[in-house]
Design a protein that fits this description.
autocatalytic cleavage, alpha+beta, 11 helices, 4-stranded antiparallel beta sheet, Glutamine Phosphoribosylpyrophosphate, subunit 1, domain 1, 2 domains, globular, 12 strands, binds aspartic acid
């Protein structure tokens, strides 16, 4: 008798409109999605053969779909972001991990960061030379150290302590990036002669030398967003230069109260205009959509300042936006609402 009463009470609550609305909301809250990028810059459409385009798009899809499958399986956005980025780090096509650009001195110095939008915990590394997966090291800094950012040799010691895979610096070598270095150094030498100033000469290196950074943002079924970014920085960088990618708020930012962003482009501008955090702050304080906030920062603020590049961004409702003000940005996305995208140019 008692059980019957309990059962009928449960059934009557379950059929109330309020209960049904809550269930519908719970169902909606299970939305999940991922967006990734493989860098923005001057990507010459006329030089993009079908074969080359396919190679890029296939790799982007592989990274995106790997992250998406993890999310579908109920894994965290942090796990999905790391998995997607590691696929791009391992590919010689992108300027992160294998295939990273060369410094002026002919080495590779890698930067990466990750941020979790629920805990606001973040981890970053800069100038590492022998860590195979800089994004894995950034995650270890976030999870296993009391710090947010480690650099250079200290970061490498920490990576060893954490048992992360290390490689020779030459592991990151590719001929295409080496040719870019030679070209950049030739241009630098000519301009330095003309302008009698190395820094002014450096200013003339165009976007062709700085695309290919990789990043991912994701929303998981629990409603948490995460952002991560990994890069070799800019070709012919010197004096231990560090870009925006490992700087929380500049190249990477995530906050469940607003959005998660991973950036790519001319790092000096992204640092000074704290691009990733600015997009999230505009959304939160101005009450505008993610799309609007990202569009203003990339296509207005940065354009006026002269900073080229783009971002991928996601909010807790699963909205995704991927604006850029350069000729192209390698990018892909997939949402549990059935939408998916892969492309390079504006009209893709
Ligand atoms: N933002 C990176 C940096 O300045 C480069 C890039 O995104 O291509 O180091």
């Amino acid at each position: 008798m008692k059980n019957k009463i309990i059962l009928s009470t449960i059934l009557s609550i379950a059929s109330t409109p309020l209960f049904m609305v809550n269930m519908a909301q719970a169902h909606q809250e299970q939305a999940f999605a991922i967006a990734i990028h493989g860098g923005a810059g001057t990507i010459n459409k006329s030089k993009m053969t079908e074969k080359k385009r396919k190679a890029y798009e296939d790799k982007l899809k592989e990274a995106r779909d790997t992250g998406y499958a993890l999310l579908a399986d109920g894994k965290s956005s942090q796990t999905a972001v790391i998995a997607a980025i590691q696929i791009l780090e391992d590919s010689p096509l992108f300027n992160a991990g294998k295939g990273a650009v060369y410094t002026f001195d002919g080495e590779h110095e890698l930067d990466a960061s990750i941020m979790n939008g629920k805990t606001l915990n973040a981890g970053a590394v800069s100038g590492v030379k022998t860590v195979k997966s800089p994004i894995a090291l950034a995650e270890a800094v976030m999870e296993k150290s009391v710090h947010v950012m480690l650099s250079g040799e200290g970061a490498e010691v920490f990576a060893k302590q954490q048992g992360l895979e290390s490689v020779e610096n030459s592991y990151f070598d590719t001929d295409a990036r080496y040719q870019s270095l030679l070209k950049a150094k030739k241009q630098l030498a000519e301009k330095e002669k003309e302008l009698k100033d190395f820094q002014a000469a450096h200013q003339t290196l165009n976007n062709e030398y700085k695309f290919g950074t990789v990043g991912a943002v994701a929303l998981d079924k629990s409603g948490t967003i995460t952002a991560g970014t990994s890069t070799g920085g800019m070709t012919a960088k010197r004096f231990g230069r560090i870009g925006d990618a490992p700087i929380v708020g500049a190249g990477t930012y995530a906050n469940n109260d607003s959005c998660a962003v991973s950036a790519t482009g001319h790092g000096e501008y992204f640092i000074r205009y704290h691009v990733a955090a600015d997009i999230c702050a505009r959304m939160q304080y101005q009450g505008i959509s993610l799309e609007k906030a990202a569009d203003v920062v990339i296509n207005d603020v940065l354009v006026k300042a002269g900073g080229s590049g783009g971002v991928i961004a996601i909010d807790v409702a699963g909205n995704i936006t991927m604006p850029f003000n350069s000729t192209g940005m390698y990018r892909a996305s997939k949402s549990s609402n059935g939408e998916e995208f892969v492309g390079i140019f504006k009209d893709d």
